Amino acid sequence: MKLTVNGQEHDLGGIDPDMPVLWVLRDKLNLTGTKYGCGRAQCGACTVHVNGEAIRSCSVSARHAAGKKIVTIEAVSGRVADAVRSAWQRLDVVQCGYCQSGQIMTAISLLSSIRKPTDADIDAAMDGNICRCGTYGRIRKAIHEAARSLAERPPS
Amino acid sequence: MIPWAHGRRALSPAEERDTAPAMCFCRTMRSPVVGASIGTGLALLISVIAAMLWSREAITQQSSDPEVSLAAWDRVVTVLQHPRCSNCHQPSEPLQGESGRRHSPRVIRGRDNQGVPGMRCGSCHSAQGNNEASRVPGATDWKMPPRSMSWARLSIGQLCRSLKDPAKNGRRSLKGIVKHMQDDSLVHWSWDPGGTRESVPMPHHVFVEFVEEWVRSGAHCPS
């Protein structure tokens, strides 16, 4: 069983092919930035990118991720990722931090498709990422801030 | 003497050439009476063929029997109104569970019926099928049907007429409706929904037979 994670192919030997990608990342590859929150695709803490799409890694098995490109919070990069990271830092979004990996991966996915999201777009995209600390207000502001910085600095 | 020669006397060689089949046909067609008859017959034949091609019901329906048709529809609609079907045949947001509760997490249809950026249907619902670890259902091409195929708050008569309406049902003929019920991957999922979700209680092949019977007997709808 081989998976491509963060640009690197990993030979996972004889793992259970039905192991959720979340546990492959955390237990087999030591990529613990992606979090377990519910295991039921309800909270969004486990969000990663698979072939560029935000996917809940608790709900996709290793066998079904084979041959696809998985990117985790540890390695997500690019203009949109940089803008989101900066906005998150500038606005001091994070409290306990547990949900933030999933929040950021979903926000990057949103801004990659919609460069100037409205509040309704943000609601629709982010509603499935739960934050027990209640940082939703700052998350929303940070997404708007990231969108502004992307608009101000068009790609060279 | 050539058998089809006209007249009683023997034909000269030149006349025999003229009465070769093609020429004979042409001469025949030149007759106003015969020509008009053949033309009328051809026009009638073309009309019949066109009517058959345009009206698929003429191909699929064998009789019109309202009583049989409505009895079959009563069985068909129990499936269409089952949560496995009706949960997704909604105007803007799919529903969940047996009670038709709001989908959690919140999702919306999106422009392509597959969610919105950041929250696509495929973010959770795998094309490879039900995920038993997370208990999230899945199937090939997981998405909502088009808005025109919403069945929310429709009576069984309204649902029937909506199902038959090509303007609402994805331009499907009655034959196309049968095929959809027979072959569609999301329809099939309703019989294998995974987790603790209730499967449609009627066997799939029995359901398709009722759909076919409904169509065959005239696809009548209750008022």
Quick synopsis:
The complex is a heterodimer of chains A (156) and B (223). Chain A has 156 residues and is of the alpha+beta class.
Query: Which ranges of chain B are low-confidence, i.e. pLDDT below 50, for 5 or more consecutive residues?
Result: 1-11, 15-26, 54-59
Number of strands of chain B: 4
The description of the largest β-sheet of chain B is:
2 strands, antiparallel
Helix and strand string of chain A, N-terminal first? Answer: EEHEEHEHHHH
Relative helix content of chain B: 40-55%
Low-confidence stretches of chain A: none
Pair of chains with the largest interface and how many residues each contributes: A-B, 31 and 21 residues
Specify the overall morphology of chain B: elongated
Strand tally of chain A = 5
The backbone outline of chain A, from C-alpha atoms, is globular
CATH level 1 name of the largest domain in chain A: Mainly Alpha
